[in-house]
Design a protein that fits this description.
With about 210 residues, this protein is an all-alpha fold. Helices cover about 75% and strands about 0% of the residues.
Length: about 210
């Protein structure tokens, strides 16, 4: 390498990019691995080339790419995350309303629908006993589904009892309204009231907590 300028020693020209110069240095280092004198000459040539490039850049002979001069312009601004809107409504209501999973909806629906079918199609002679048993099972299943969400015994009991009372009241009111137009008898009214009650219990067990 004696008698050569630093560029020739590295095998590059003054028009070579910095990446080309660095790659040439690494390639020569790999070729002369173990030859300490040669490695020192390569490193000296590399340093000389860098110093010359720095001088030319300071004199304005080399145009510095914008990606090096203004790196901040090349970085795309990170979009600010969309702020999450806080839930609206009273705090007690937010704590009461649930966002149920598919199983939280379908499982209570299946049980309470089965109880509704039971009281609607059971023989009239056994409706009273069957209806009482179905009502107990409906309230018990509502309590179970509510309790497993929050593990709050008192709240589950209260909501189950409120659901039963509310459901019976709504069912009785609807039955009275529909009694005349549909010509329903007492047995049918009782079965209808229980079926409406089971629907209300399903709403409470699925969408409250």
């Amino acid at each position: 390498m004696s008698g050569q300028n630093p560029y020739e020693q590295l095998g590059v020209t003054e028009a070579s990019s910095f990446e080309d110069i660095q790659n040439a240095r690494n390639r020569l280092f790999a070729e002369h691995q173990g030859d300490r004198k040669q490695l020192e000459k390569i490193e000296a040539a590399y340093d000389a080339v860098l110093m010359d490039r720095l001088r030319q850049r300071q004199e304005g002979k080399i145009k510095v790419p914008d990606r090096i001069r203004f790196p901040e312009k090349m970085v795309q601004a990170t979009p600010s995350p969309t702020p999450i809107q806080p839930p609206t409504g009273p705090g007690w209501l937010q704590r009461l309303i649930d966002t149920p999973s598919r199983s939280d909806i379908l499982l209570p629906a299946g049980i309470l629908a089965a109880l509704s079918a039971l009281v609607l199609f059971v023989p009239a002679t056994t409706l009273q006993q069957t209806g009482q048993a179905a009502l107990i099972l409906g309230v018990g299943s509502t309590f179970y589904f509510l309790f497993r969400k929050e593990r709050k015994f008192g709240r589950a009991v209260l909501l189950s009892l409120v659901g039963m009372v509310l459901g019976l009241a709504i069912g009785y009111g609807l039955a009275e309204v529909l009694k005349a137009p549909l010509g329903m008898v007492k047995i049918q009214l009782e079965a209808f009231t229980l079926a409406v009650n089971f629907f209300v219990l399903w709403l409470i067990s699925s969408f409250l907590r």
